[in-house]
Amino acid sequence: MSGNHLIEIDNLQKYYKGGEIKALDGITNNISKGEVVVVIGPSGSGKSTLLRSLNLLEIPTGGSIRFDGVDITDRHTNIDLHRRRMGMVFQHFNLFPNMTVLRNMTLGPTQLLKQPVEEAEQYAMELLQTVNLADRAAAYPDQLSGGQKQRVAIVRALCMHPEVMLFDEPTSALDPEMVGEVLDVMKGLAEHGMTMVVVTHEMGFAREVASRVIFMDAGKIIEEGTPSDIFDHPKSDRLQSFLAKVL
Amino acid sequence: MAEYWQDLQNQFRLNFIDDDRWQWIVRGLGSTIVITFFALILGVVIGVVIASIRSTYDKNLETYKLRGGIVYPIMRVFNAICNIYLTIVRGTPVVVQLLIAYFIIFASSRNGIMVAVIAFGINSGAYVAEILRGGIMSIDHGQFEAGRSLGFNYLQTMRFIVIPQVFKNVLPSLCNEFITLLKETSIAGYVGIVDLTKAGDLIRGRTFSPFMPLIAVALIYLVIVLILTRLVHRLERRLRSNER
Lengths: 247, 244
Fold this sequence. Notes:
The complex is a heterodimer.
Chain A: E1 5-16, E2 21-32, E3 36-40, H1 47-54, E4 62-67, E5 70-71, H2 79-83, E6 86-89, H3 101-111, H4 117-130, H5 146-158, E7 164-168, H6 176-191, E8 195-199, H7 203-209, E9 212-217, E10 220-225, H8 227-232, H9 237-246
Parallel strand pairs in A: 3-8, 3-9, 6-7, 7-8
Antiparallel strand pairs in A: 1-2, 1-4, 4-5, 9-10
Helix pairs in contact in A: 3-4, 3-5, 5-6
Chain B: H1 2-17, H2 22-67, H3 71-91, H4 94-105, H5 112-138, H6 141-150, H7 154-184, H8 196-207, H9 211-241
């Protein structure tokens, strides 16, 4: 039933005011294991809503999402168990300001996965090493730069051993000189085979890392394909005019 | 000058030493502390319950509506009850509430202290509830989302992530509410309780010299408030040093 797809999105809708505003207007798409799907589009196109629907931070008003064969939009599905398997990175980091970097990372594993503290901390330190922040383990989020915060947010999500990582404009709140360090971490993740769905305005990243690019406008998927399809041979007028503005 | 000192000493003897009048003050202080302490506990319990219901309702309104089920109507009823309670308690003077509690609701009870504890507790609960709810709502929504996205359920998110941040933020306001409560108990005399204020007033009535007993009462309140403030200040500092 579930086929080979990790996430199956079927006719997903998000209507406000009884259908007057359609943030998502019938999205159907499948995401396979190991894919890096980058969603682009003008602001208000529904790309963030789509991403946030995947772990039900946004509750769709119609359609369904199957994750690993289970319909998570069904009200009887325990969404908390599924969210543990989907890491999420936010535009504004959302680190817990009253906890150290290490505690930010181990809270989930120790409380939810019941890992022993030493084991969780050891894994967290390994991850911190990979993003060159091992020396900041005892720091509080306020003491970090934006780029450092976002790298911590990424490894915090990784501590839960997720099967897919969702990125909601991870570099939009960063100073330009910090964008690169975050994108590098994401690139590394993609190279290690992590399944990723990324909403971003970083066209360079999309072109270089994406296995598939989705262009959205007005709550619909207008065009999708390989980075070369999208960036070098755009078919629809809307994608062409969008690219003309951002490239 | 010597005359003045002599006069003060006489006043002091008259108001506190003669007939062991100082015992009024001690017993009154005892009642004030007992009423404040238990009303505080009751108020915090009520406040936590009300704030939990109200903020849970506010935070999850959209989810309830979209996902349907029995939870939404139940929460609506609870939320409405809380709102009625808040409106009544905050819309009427605490003296009137105390009188109603003593002469109408608990008319059969002669345990004035207990009635006062209940009346002040219910009153304080409304204010504590709104302080806590304000604290919860002031936490960035991203904190909830981060917690939920890691897989914490609503209650776990509150417990592990939100409440610890709320507690530190609301501590000054809560301290303020406790000080207000302590001073509000000075109206307990209305229902025949001899609290600190009433004790001072009784002495004044016996000795016909208002200065000593009333100033003494005022000073005692002041000292208690200062001690409370100092304790909370220290707690606040410790909580903050945990962070940075």
